[in-house]
Write a structure and sequence with these properties.
The protein is an alpha/beta fold and 766 residues long. It contains 26 helices and 30 strands. Strands 5-4-19-18-17-6 form a six-stranded mixed beta sheet. α9 packs antiparallel against α12.
Length: 766
């Protein structure tokens, strides 16, 4: 007989915790209500996962012996010394005080990027920001690696990405009313395993299958056909990477030339069309064929098909993670405006369907529990993908969204949640920059590559070791994440760590607000959210009732089944938040910035690296680095589930059989992937569902350089960011351009260095 099950939540789903007769958590099971549960988190209790836990406060040996900045070039190579909690916190409090008094809070970078916990209170990013704000502020990051270009662009021309994601036309409406679904970049089911704050009911697979069963026709414009599964037929247009904007412009050209555009919609709901139309001269299907590799007759026919039937356009987030990544998103909105179906059931555009579980959800939108972060008096910030530039070039100027800014001089990095040695591009360049600060602090659950590169590592609890509340936007359930087991080693939750630091630094009252325990915070945040939700017609039970039951259903009606329906019905009463209140096909605001790499309208600008570039003569393969199917970013890369997907311990790289044959590569061979920025080892996986000249190396393999002392070591594990380019998408957004990357591949003969990414660091005595 087993103990009664409780629930926990992770970004990839809800899990039921099974206990043995002694009350010990032994297994995790998929959520019984979920129609398509993700397996990613099922091994969170496994010995393999637990083995890599950070168990005690640990300090890099030279930093402990000689103080801040000592032998910073040895980060990642030196052993750690485990110390008592009080000593670690005293040292850290002293270092925070030193940096603040010597350089000011503008020398502290609050680094937290990632999906560290689905819990809304023990959310590391909120916790570190709240603490640093209580202590006088910090340099923050803006935007995200996932959506750097789109987050900046879309408010100028349509709406913020947060608004757009939450208002997508529902899946059942698409099945009923859409006739043609055209997606640029697919609808990758693997990505839709996740939702910020936790997915509860996964619906992307069911939505796609229902559309196919209803007779919707699918066209997938992508270099790899593996990113859309609807259970049936899909037309695949195998486009060259980074050329989607050119294809969309040619579609616009055909609509204009053949008078298939909706002039009435353009006049009433948009601004700037005539200025844009004047730029289409010469951008016809024949022009686009030379760039995209899509036959001109198919481009013309597709434009006619779109105009003749109810069409939904979707775009993958990966398209804006490229040089000039704003352009495909802007071109998609422009194309949708010319078709004139925005606001109609089954028509318009999405941004997009599939990157997370949120889009297309039928459930109501309401406010969930959120930890207040306070106000940050420090004005300095960086676009998140310019992290290395900030460290290498303090005092240098950079453009961003119409203004000029200055990189601050960072002396202390305080990181809680996330792994920059996963997210960032050109990791060899980052390693050089990482030597610059005096001190690098990490709260971590596991000995990730970033933790091994820190000076002070404080062991943090996992979501299974604390009480919390799981909530995600447009998810139907709120989850009582009850503590399932005691912390491993001496791990503490982030709030407890920060509160102890706040006490040492004299700001505990502001930090705790008089709440003595996390449970007091949970009750407060939940009841606060309950009041807000009631104002939009969504009811939640009282906190005590919710906590006792372990789950609460957010009861209410979804009021927005069709994206932009209200705006279409009455554009005056429901103006967009753009300067004109309409869709901006031409943006006077962006044009006024004078950026040569992002003009005032959608266009196609040649990327710095692509298959049509001179560089392709040396590096003839375009490498895509997408989200992995077996984990979220790099989380749980050491779990049995993720390790089972590797080949010979390395990340698989997918290439076309013809490209493999030309290089003497067979399935399962170890290969060296390289360019001027670096090289990594991966294992060959062959597929005819990827375009020739394109390879796909999913992210997530923990960074594992062979020679940590080298400036450009061989990465042994298959991390694509050993190869990617670290420049901004444009002066407008400064977003990351991981998908703009040319490489070459060769078979790796002979012995290969062992993968050591999942080994513990070395420890030393004083």
């Amino acid at each position: 007989m087993t103990h009664q099950r409780t629930l926990t939540a992770a970004h990839w789903g809800v899990y039921e915790v099974e206990y043995d007769e002694a009350g010990k958590a032994t297994r995790l099971h998929p959520f019984s209500k979920d129609p398509d549960p993700s397996p990613i988190g099922l091994h969170m209790l496994s010995d393999e996962v637990t083995r890599l836990r950070v168990r005690r406060p640990s300090i890099r040996k030279s930093w402990l012996a000689k103080g801040p900045g000592a032998a910073s070039e040895l980060r990642g190579q030196e052993p750690f010394v485990e110390v008592p909690w009080d000593e670690a916190l005293d040292l850290l409090a002293g270092e925070l005080k030193r940096v603040k008094e010597t350089y000011s809070n503008r020398a502290i970078f609050g680094g937290s990027y990632g999906w560290s916990s689905a819990g809304r209170f023990h959310h590391a990013q909120s916790q570190v920001k709240r603490f640093l704000n209580c202590y006088g502020g910090f340099v923050r990051h803006q935007d995200s690696y996932s959506l750097g270009a789109a987050r900046v662009l879309m408010p100028h021309i349509a709406a913020s990405m947060e608004e757009l994601m939450a208002m997508h036309t529902r899946w059942e409406v698409l099945a009923k009313d859409c006739k043609l679904f055209v997606t640029f970049g697919g609808v990758p089911h693997k990505n839709a395993q996740i939702n910020a704050g936790g997915a509860t009911l996964h619906h992307v697979k069911g939505g796609l299958y229902a559309m196919r069963e209803a007779g919707v026709r699918f066209v997938n414009v992508t270099p790899t056909a593996e990113d859309l599964d609807n259970g049936g037929a899909v037309e695949w247009l195998a486009i060259r990477p980074n050329t989607d904007a050119a294809l969309m412009l040619a579609l616009c050209h055909t609509l204009l030339k053949e008078n298939l555009h909706d002039r009435a919609f353009l006049d009433r709901y948009t601004v700037g069309f005539d200025k844009f139309a004047a730029t289409l001269a010469g951008k016809d299907a024949a022009w686009a064929e030379k760039i995209t590799g899509i036959p001109a007759p198919r481009i013309v026919a597709l434009a006619r098909e779109m105009a003749s039937t109810r069409t939904m356009l979707s775009i993958g987030w990966s398209l804006q993670r490229s040089h000039h990544g704003e352009q495909p998103f802007w071109a998609l909105v422009t194309l949708a405006c010319m078709l004139g179906q925005i606001g109609l059931p089954g028509g318009g555009f999405g941004v997009g369907y599939g990157p997370v579980n949120l889009m297309g959800s039928p459930h109501p939108r309401y406010s969930g529990p959120t930890l207040p972060q306070g106000s940050n008096p420090v004005p300095d910030f960086i676009p998140v993908a310019r992290f290395t530039d900030m460290l290498l070039h303090p005092g240098a100027r950079f453009d961003y969204n119409g203004k000029s800014h200055v990189y601050p001089d960072i002396r202390l990095i305080y990181w809680a949640g996330g792994n920059p040695y996963h997210h960032h591009q050109d990791l060899n360049r980052l390693r050089q920059a990482w030597r610059k600060p005096d001190t690098v602090v990490f709260h971590e659950q596991f000995w990730t590559p970033a933790a091994k590169m820190a000076d002070i590592v404080l062991p943090a609890t996992t979501s299974l070791e604390r009480d919390d509340i799981g909530y995600g936007t447009r998810e139907p359930y709120v989850i009582a994440m009850k503590k399932a087991r005691e912390p491993v080693g001496e791990a503490r939750d982030d709030y407890a760590i920060f509160n102890d630091l706040a006490r040492r630094l004299g700001v505990e009252a502001a930090h705790s607000e008089g709440r003595a325990t996390p449970q007091e915070w949970l009750a407060h945040l939940y009841e606060e959210a309950r009041v807000k939700s009631a104002k939009v017609g969504v009811t939640l039970p009282p906190y005590a009732e919710f906590w006792e039951a372990g789950i609460a259903e957010a009861k209410g009606e979804s009021r927005d089944p069709v994206m932009f329906a209200a705006f279409r019905a009455d554009p005056e009463a429901n103006k967009l938040k753009t300067p004109s209140g309409k869709f901006e096909i031409f943006s006077e605001t962006i044009a006024s910035f004078g950026y040569d790499d992002c003009p005032g309208h959608a266009t196609w600008l040649e990327p710095i690296e692509w298959l049509g570039a001179k560089t392709a003569e040396r590096y003839p393969l375009h490498m895509l680095s997408d989200q992995p199917a077996d984990k979220l970013h790099s989380q749980l890369d050491h779990s049995p589930h993720a390790r089972a997907t590797k080949i010979k311990g390395r990340q698989p790289i997918t290439l076309h059989p013809d490209d493999a044959t030309a290089r003497g590569i067979a399935a399962g061979d170890l290969v060296r992937v390289f360019n001027d920025r670096g090289a990594c080892l991966a294992a060959a996986r062959l597929s005819d569902r990827i375009r020739r000249g394109v390879v796909r190396l999913s992210t997530g393999a923990w960074f594992d350089p062979a020679d940590a002392g080298s400036n450009q070591p061989l990465e042994k594990h298959g991390n694509p960011n050993a190869l990617t380019l670290d420049i901004g998408a444009s002066k407008l957004s400064q977003g990351c351009i991981a998908q703009t990357c040319l490489v070459e591949i060769e078979r790796h003969d002979g012995s290969a260095p062992a993968v050591t990414a999942h080994q513990l660091p070395a420890f030393a005595s004083r």
